[in-house]
Design brief:
The structure holds two protein chains of two kinds.
Chain A (H helix, E strand, L loop, with lengths): L2 H11 L5 H19 L3 E7 L6 E3 L4 E9 L2 E2 L14
Antiparallel strand pairs in A: 3-4
Chain B lengths: L3 H7 E6 L2 E7 L12 E2 L7 E8 L20 H14 L7 H22 L15
Helix pairs in contact in B: 2-3
The chains are: A alpha+beta, B alpha+beta.
């Protein structure tokens, strides 16, 4: 279903509502639906750099399902290491 | 090339704010030297892959956009949510009964969406043989 079709369905109930208001409402609904259902899978890749501990995450990321190094799943540390490293 | 067991024994991950941290298990660290147990990667070049749940890409001003991150059978749910929200707004069109009705339709779609998202979910388990 296209955005236009969705807007038309909504305008059957609210003929005075403009497209841009409906679009921002649709975007909120889209975020709400994907957050509640966890329906959108995604994959991000990066290359490990020597002495670099921290790697930026996608701001649109909700939950991490699995982390792999060279396609092998690795375990999560429950508590961060005693010795920190800002890089 | 490192074996699966080597990789799983060597690498660990954790979340630190908006970043993911990758550390190596320093197998030579002793109990007295806990601070050196997990260290930053001593070697580079390995591929890091993160599988995650993401927010959908928002609609742009292009009216022909389709919410491709959401399966087609759930597209109408977005309209249900917007209609429910708009009926809740104060004003002439406010109608809490209709708002509740569309909220219910939306909640039903969310339930179906959750089921759909878990359709490939597998539980690990071991069947233990017994002799009688």
């Amino acid at each position: 279903m296209t955005q236009k079709e969705l807007i038309e369905i909504i305008q059957q109930h609210f003929p005075d509502q403009g497209e841009s208001i409906i679009r921002s409402s649709l975007n909120r609904a889209l975020s709400d639906f994907t957050a509640k259902t966890a329906i959108t899978d995604a994959v991000a890749t990066d290359t490990i750099v020597k002495d670099k501990r921290m790697y930026d995450l996608d701001p649109g990321m909700l939950t991490i399902k699995r982390v792999e190094i060279d396609s092998v799943q690795i375990p999560r540390l429950v508590t961060p290491p005693v010795k920190g490293d800002l890089d | 090339m490192a074996s699966i067991r080597d990789i799983q024994g060597k690498w660990r991950w954790f979340i630190d704010g908006e970043r993911i941290a990758i550390v190596e298990d320093n197998l030579s660290a002793t109990d007295e030297n806990l601070e050196g147990k997990y260290i930053s990667p001593a070697t580079g070049g390995s591929t890091l892959t993160v599988h995650y749940i993401a927010l959908a890409t928002p609609f742009t001003t292009n009216l022909e956009d389709t919410p491709t991150d959401v399966p087609a059978q759930f597209h109408e749910a977005l309209a249900f949510k917007v209609i429910a929200d708009l009926y809740r707004l104060p004003g002439e069109s406010m109608n809490l009964q209709l708002s509740q009705y569309y909220d219910q339709l939306y909640a039903e779609q969310v339930r179906e969406g959750k089921k759909y998202a878990k359709r490939n979910h597998m539980r690990s388990g071991v069947i233990t043989p017994h002799t009688y």
